[in-house]
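Section 5.1 Outputs to date
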Amino acid sequence: MQQSRRDEEIIRAATDSDHEDLLQVLMLRFGEVPNDVRALIATVQDGDRMDHLILAAANAPGWAEFLQDLSQPAFGMVGTSYDPLRELQPPVKKGVR
């Protein structure tokens, strides 16, 4: 019984740490995090989902894209704007193979 309680405390501490990490990434990238976004983030308790959101925050080109991802229940970064290599690829010329 005591082991189970200790495990729950460890999981809760890890989740709290993930929430803080996500908020820090968002603040560094986009500035102040609105209270409604903070409230949505606080509802996320799944560690895999938090990891995904941290990656999304680090890669989203803007607030709109991150918020779209935050509102999606499934994994997968939405939209084509998440392609960080797009700018490194040479433009495709029509008729040239």
